[in-house]
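Hey, resending since the last one bounced:
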Amino acid sequence: MGVIRGALPAAPIAVYPYFDKVQFWLKSPADRTTVARLRRHCGHLHPDDRPARFGQGYRQRLEFKQPDEDALRWIAGQSDVLINRLEVTLDMIYPDQRALEDAGEFLERHLVRRWHGRTQKIKVVGKTRYDAPRGAPNGMVMYPESYSRQTGELFCLHLEWRINNARAARGAGIRAGTDLLRFDHRRFWRERMLLVEIDAERLGRLMRNRRNGTRSRTPDVGRFSGIVTNLDRRRGGVVLKAFGTLQEVIDAFGSSLRLERAVKRIATASFLPDA
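The structure tokens again:
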């Protein structure tokens, strides 16, 4: 069908879901003894005792890094929690460096996001891929790590969904601390980890029909030096190769073409955590 796609990488040998960051406000601040105790149940804990600029009686902000279940249970027990920042994370473990690099390259190319604004450009800094600017309500970040922060296992591909305000947190189903304890990580990522391929021939035909005002369903064929050439596939392939990621292709053409006719989902079950 003329799909421009890298080889499907090997599945990770393990996938670990967790919250890499949980930030929230309290109206009744935690005291120093409680903060000291909670520090034993996370990678890092930063308290800020300045009142919230938005008011509403919130007097303390707590930022947890890698909170464990005891920390999440304490958060769930607070009745005045306003959760306004989260990093929902997967650590995908691979058997060696080559497998890790292959998976990273594949996901960098094929990973897309629903409701991705055209101004939210894909940006790669070093080995880190961002699909939204800092501070956007939602955004994905991906990068390789030498080991998992959860288990210490080597060859880790780190993927996180960053939520940057209370409204976005509610959109992810987190309205109170109790939602953190019963959070369904598999369902969250099943709905948000979208891997796609784009058929080059169909893309080329959509572009040709748009340009000519036609509704052709058959390929445009030409002959060069006695060789029959599928011109739609050729045009679509040129476009796909011109973009580093398929998210950029969708951003560029999604509003002008019925691009869903050329897009096909790739199964993601092997990248998801266990139920």
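Residues 195-271 form one domain.

Sorry for the duplicate.
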